[in-house]
Specification:
By secondary structure, this protein is of the alpha/beta class. The protein is 30% helix and 25% strand. The protein has eleven helices and 19 strands. The strands form four sheets. The chain has a nine-stranded mixed β-sheet, sandwiched between helices. Strands 1, 2, 5, 9 and 10 form a five-stranded mixed β-sheet that branches. Strand 3 and strand 4 form a beta hairpin. The longest helix is centred in the first third of the chain and has 24 residues. The chain is globular and about 70 Å long. The N and C termini lie far apart (75 Å).
Amino acid sequence: MRMRAVWRTALWLGLLILVAMLLVACTPSPEMNVVTYLLEDRLGTAGPDADERPTGSLTGSVLYQGEPVEGAAVVVAERWGEPHTAFTDADGRYRIEGIPPGQYVPAAVAVDFQEAVPQDRFGLPHLVTIASGETTEAPDIELTPYQTAPLPNPLAEAVSLTELGSYTSTAPFPAGSASQVQNFSFEIDGVVNDSLRVYLPIDAEPGATYPMLFVVYPGPTENWEDISVALSAPGYAVVALAPAGVRGLDIDGHALDARIAFNLALDGALGPGISDAPAVVMGGSFSSPIVRRFLLDESDKVAGWITLGGISDGFRLARDFYSGEITVPEMHNLAIPSLGLPNLYPLPFLHYSTIYTAGELVPTFVIHTMADEVTRVEQAQELVAALQTAGIPVEVDYYDDVSHYLQIGEYMTEASKEMYYAVLDFVQRYTSTQ
């Protein structure tokens, strides 16, 4: 029996080594990433452990067309997510201390630039080796400017905008809340999103327009209907969207869907009741980084944004997951492993990290419960600090409640009520000034 167990372990290890070799050779698929994680989890090697070896340092340069980029963020992440960061000086140079020995791919990003990693002559991510007590010089990281991709025109026709129906909906709070609702679908690049809904006050008058609150929910829009109605009833056009499940964790694909829905609303394609003035945008949990990517392209049409229980640093989210410090909903418990190992493939995690380019953001309202077990409150605290450093107006609501989301109705608490009115106050102030 013992020999059989030894052979079984050897087989698992052999498979793990094979997968690791494949990972080094090419960018792995989400499925391959999950297989690797499950193998390591089975062997008991998944997750951080104490490394008592002396650390090393990494230095290097971040450039654009051979010229230094000042203020670029450079991140080196440990295998299980812990990030080590530095910002470049006027010469484009950086130095990161305290990195455990091992192999890494550093990543860089700066305001108005794309995320990037150093590349070898084959265009593959360049590995650097950190040794105890030594300083390693990394290859230069070349940045390219971020460019907004144009949307197709005419938009409604290009994305096959279709009205799926209309109805009236009510919410239990505040008392008497009711909205007129229209449901739409659209298609881009073969992906259909049928979650687009527009909520107008029940007493909306013909010819009247209402300030837009654009909401990207972290799950199906129908699951959040009470909130959409409650936010619409006081006099707002709530345009709500959910991530298309087929896109998985493709944050740029989700952001493209958000751009399409948002611009359809501004163009009047979703009805005449939506004002084309700069809107307030809201996201929560997984959808907050989607909104951040959306803002890279649409910030000139947005007066302010609200992030509720949001992710601001994908690396620290991975660290918290692998160390068992957060509780991920069961249906998403393989989402973080599917992104790959942060030390080798940092770009997906950098795409989920708002804090490194906070200077690109608009006035922000950060809401987070101190007891959040899905996304730790440190995510909010680090975002607030980054916004303050960048000089972006920021307001904060740290509340004491167990809810990771804004709750209305059966699960509503006093903290939820206060949060609801705080959201309305922010929306009112930032839409009324336009």
